Give the backbone structure.
Amino acid sequence: QLQLQESGPGLVKPSETLSLTCSVSGGSISSGDYLWGWIRQPPGKGLEWIGSVYYSGSTYGNPSLKSRVTVSVDTSKNQFSLKLSSVTAADTAVYFCARHGRVCSGTNCFAFDIWGQGTMVTVSS
Amino acid sequence: QSALTQPPSASGSPGQSVTISCTGTSSDVGGYKYVSWYQQHPGKAPKFMIYEVSKRPSGVPDRFAGSKSGNTASLTVSGLQAEDEADYYCSSYADSNTWVFGGGTKLTVL
């Protein structure tokens, strides 16, 4: 059964770069028509899609964050990563990694079907 | 890219039905049949409930039903149960290979 697990620092200083990794187990990040994405949720607020990556390295990003976001994949480690630069307090959130459909298949159609448990990142000096 | 619009709250008594709306634009909800819904209990990751507007993944009860008309999608929960109390989020594929979420609706079972 496919599982995703986020890892990274829980505290980042303002103006620095937030870096997180999502490890995929129980399946290959290179298989199937799926994208691997990052979603965040500020405390008490809703979900926001940040960006996604295909195993080939192709990336897709939220226009409102795109200038600060880098999403990458390491197929040899079965991991993908997020870097968010120039962070402020507004970037404080729970960050989730998730698998989502890149095309319509039998059991998915562009939806986020498997999620990591999430990791809290606080931006503070 | 603007978030999809959901009512902040909804409620119903056990056994009743409740419908949550999700309004977007022709660039997302109205332009594609790729609307999905997620259930999130406090402190947990979202759970995948509906995809392609109205299809249920394996294991999701048929009490959960999705639909769409124009730029507005809806999630109806029938036969409300205590465990249905949670936050619900819609999401849509949108123009230029992007995805957008709604602001979320807190469902209370009275």
User: Anything to note?
Assistant: The interface with chain A takes residues 1, 3, 32-34, 36, 38, 44-48, 51-52, 55, 57-58, 89, 91, 93, 96-104 of chain B (CB under 8 Å).
